[in-house]
Amino acid sequence: MNPSRSSSLSQWFEPEPVVEPEPVVEPEPVVEPEPVVEPEPVVEPEPVIEPEPVVEPEPVIEPEPEEEPLEPVVPAVAQEQERPTKEGFFARLKRSLLKTKQNLGSGFMGLFRGKKIDDDLFDELEEQLLIADVGVDTTRKIITSLTQHASRKQLKDAEALYGKLKEEMSEILAKVDRPLDVSGKTPYVILMVGVNGVGKTTTIGKLARQFQAEGKSVMLAAGDTFRAAAVEQLQVWGERNRIPVVAQHTGADSASVIFDAVQAAKARGIDVLIADTAGRLQNKSHLMEELKKIVRVMKKLDDQAPHEVMLTLDASTGQNAVSQAKLFNEAVGLTGITLTKLDGTAKGGVIFAIADQFGIPIRYIGVGEGIEDLRPFKADDFIEALFARED
């Protein structure tokens, strides 16, 4: 009896698990579809993506079209700024050459005054020329010429040599006194070369302003694609002065950028195109090959381009500037030189070494930070400022 009762009891207990359908409550998690509401917020971020296209106003190309109508205004302003500075330039030139004059020019007076002409005098003069970075070869030429002159004229008074020395140094610079003429070509293409840090990009900006002041339309090509700062600097110059700048992303092919710039300048009838280039001297052979490639690419559009290959040199680097001139001249054939940072250096004598060794026209000299402090080189003015006696 008991077993049957227990079996019946067990039958009663077994159905209890039938209550297991209670886990049917599990479908409650079906309420989880509520997270389906989550997609709604997902939709919200989508409109947030919409502002991204707003970034599309990246076309910085817009300033280029603005340039044409505004160009005539800038030259007028630039010309007004130039007028008051012209008269004072000689005084500024004298001031900027003060350190160089300690060894050259008027600095010679103390050396010659009251001395007799002998080997000691010429030794002292030679030392002074070398200290001023006139260079060994050029110094020897000057000393030899003075020695022969003194012997021929049977001079005994050293002061009589002072005038001859000034004449000798003037003749060296007279050979390279040939101003840049950008007329006759549209566009006149100037390829700017030089190592980093010599003031090349700044010189480009100053030249652009000066050409504008003469009423010429100007375009810039940001060919130094290895330095983002160089591209940005040119773009800032362009925006400030309403000058179009052709540029690509950092690391782009420099020759490609300049090719595009020449095409654009031709299409728009631009008077002067100034192209910047890289100046990484760490890998000389690569840099020189890149410059040669740029020249080849230019000639596909204009067989006479570039019309000027201008090297920018920093006067304060002394004889290093001579080495750079040799390097770039051998690679691309220089047609002009701009010598910057003559102010504040005692090594300004390097201008004589460069003029004597290469005979390449010195187009401009930089004697300060201002736009008006980059001036066309005039040998007579330079010599007079150098030899001018201080009151």
From TrEMBL:
NCBIfam families: ftsY. It is a peripheral membrane protein. InterPro entries: AAA+_ATPase (IPR003593), P-loop_NTPase (IPR027417), Signal_recog_particl_SRP54_hlx (IPR013822), SR_rcpt_FtsY (IPR004390), SRP/SRP_N (IPR036225), SRP54_GTPase_dom (IPR000897), SRP54_N_sf (IPR042101). One of its GO terms (biological process) is SRP-dependent cotranslational protein targeting to membrane. Residues 1-70 are annotated as: Disordered. The gene is ftsY_1. It is found in: Cell membrane; Cytoplasm. This is Signal recognition particle receptor FtsY.
